[in-house]
């Protein structure tokens, strides 16, 4: 199998691993996906396509802080549904990086019945580490398209 196809398959599997981690509400599995230098800019709304308006909600990757944050979500919310579909995967010519455009439709409900609906398209950017392991290094927040 050629290197670009191997990279494409690795990125596709990373997306599926993330989906399974959300489905299981497994914070430890989620943080295993991330590169130590991961950053995650977030648009204030799904209509804010201009990156000049984006913010950082969680800061640079910190395993303990990010795990704690997701465990808090899982303790206070029930996952109603988690639908994710890969719209496109693009791999670098060198097969050492790439991104997946992923359509997300995830609905959470808290103990009081309030809903938090994550819906839109994300760009999940991956890099191949020394030794061949793939990690996500950047991810945009969800945008309407």
Percent range for β-strand residues: 35-45%
The structure class reads: alpha+beta
Q: And the CATH topology?
A: Nuclear Transport Factor 2, Chain: A
Radius of gyration, in angstroms, nearest whole number: 15 Å
Across the major sheet, the strand order is: 1-7-6-5-4
Poorly predicted ranges: none
Q: Helices and strands in order, then pairings?
A:
Elements (H helix, E strand, L loop, with lengths): L2 H22 L2 H5 L2 E6 L1 E2 L12 E2 L6 H14 E15 L5 E14 L4 E14 L5 E6 L6
What's the short story on this structure?
The protein is built from 3 helices and 7 strands.
Task: Walk me through this protein's architecture.
This protein is of the alpha+beta class and 145 residues long. The protein has a single domain (3-139), classed as Nuclear Transport Factor 2, Chain: A. The protein has helices at residues 3-24, 27-31, 63-76, and strands at residues 34-39, 41-42, 55-56, 77-91, 97-110, 115-128, 134-139. The strands form two sheets. A five-stranded mixed sheet has the order 1-7-6-5-4, with helices on one face. The radius of gyration is 15 Å and the shape is globular. It starts with a helix and ends in a 6-residue tail after the last strand. The relative contact order is 0.22. The mean pLDDT is 95.
